[in-house]
Amino acid sequence: MDYDIITYGNKLLRRKSTPVEEVTDDIRALAQDMLKTMYASDGLGLAAEQVGRDEAICVIDIPPMRDEETGAPKRENPDVRMPLVLVNPRITEREGEQVGSEGCLSFPGIYVTVKRAETVTVEFLDMENELRTVRACGLLARAIQHELDHLDGVLLVDQMSPVQKVAVAGKLKKLRKGRT
Per DSSP, which regions of 35-157 are E strands? Predict the structure, then answer.
């Protein structure tokens, strides 16, 4: 199934996710459909809320060339297989600080500077219903934090400073009215 990505202004983006009791074939199909939707929109991550679902699931895929864009001489997280599907994810540890530009498929055309932890450890269920732990840094850590924000109903606009909100006010207004 192809999903439409919900954009800013839709109240479904503020909904908190519901934990998944068990990874079933339906959840696996949802993950695959979310990956297809994310790839079709040229995204790096997508949370279920962004496609109108409330399951605690998000997908992330950082292509190797994106690590190179960050100036890293090699893959930042070579032990993490992509795409990454996180069911019931929970950050258990945060370290350091990074500041960088973020965009969001629910805020097309808007990019703002956001402060995040440099490194995170996240626990989640994988597609085989096994509890896994991943330690991630750099862009992957940023993507994990961004997608987990979505699962809690926290949006990119909530990370913006007052100055940033003023700078993108016109774009936000158009999104709220459904004109991107």
Answer: 45-47, 57-60, 84-95, 98-102, 112-116, 119-125, 131-137
